Structure prediction request, 392 residues.
Amino acid sequence: MNRIPHDTYGEPNPLRVLTLDDLRLRTSEKWRAYPADVLPLWVAEMDVPIAEPVVRAVTDALAIGDTGYASGTAYAEALAAFAERRWGWDGLAVERTALVPDVMLGVVEMLKLVTGPGDPVVVSPPVYPPFYDFVTHMDRKVLEAPLGPDHRLDLATLEEVFESAVAHGGRAAYLLCSPQNPTGTVHTESELTAVAALADRYGVRVVADEIHAPLVAAGARFVPYLSVPGGERGLSLMSASKGWNLPGVKAAVAVAGPAAAADLARLPGEVADGASHLGVIAHTAALREGVPWLDALLAGLDANRRLLSGLLAEHLPAVSHRPGEATYLAWLDCRALGLGDDPAQVLLDRGRVALSSGLPFGTGGAGHARLNLATSPDILTEAVRRMRTATA
Prediction:
């Protein structure tokens, strides 16, 4: 049975805790890539304090010198318990999991298991830019099956591309982003079931990046790809890093469907050695004890989505924005502003606010920008004010 989402248990909204001065003490990429006069709302880091159970777990590990190599199945066990409690999915079998250094390196390793050099990997843009970078760097060929105008999977297009991908008799994979970054689309059970049926029909293997799964808005429902009929041959990558803002303590879990267990068993043992032991400790604590903090965050993100929609309607009505059902990212259609293919660059130059350029997200990205709304309402308000000034 699913837990009721966004029950904050009296936890404070993490997005209202830190000031801009507090945040500028940070030395991570978000706060060091641009000069101090720029408001950074680009890379996927949240402006929140870390959940206390995570801080306590890592601090306790440091206090006893527990800084060796990752070991055991505690992370996978915590993820399985979270999946059953949160999504009503009891099919995450710990014996069909493996530690990987992070989600994207896990994606690479999963694709190596089911494709070879030169084989095609299908993606559905606009989508997370490293999908292109990592796939091409591992000597695979990217094929695009773009989302539809409604930001949902276009199954007819997907079938055409699957058919093309296997037309020459080789292997092919579909790298699924679920929930979708940058649009925030939560793929439905029927859509994912249709994907699985197409994958089975054409012999395409599905690798699902489900890193944003904990970050689903009120009223939406995340469905694990491996849980749908036909998903048994799939491989998934999951992590607590996005939900609890832990990208700097790297660790993720690769999960195989029942019919993909033999594939995962071929994963080289040294891959797990790349996972951070402190990362495993942090992610395990988040999944086990950090759910009240997560729910407070989700409530804050819901409020920020409403705030952003209101601010854009008032100050930048020409910007088209469909609030996402998941993630803390907003996909902004700025084409009506007349700022060219890369409005993020203009907003940076004129308004000193940093968004992610839409161009690297593939087809459908021109004229768009991605905004990270996981910040305080004050910073979000100031960012839209700057954007309005930049377009005046």
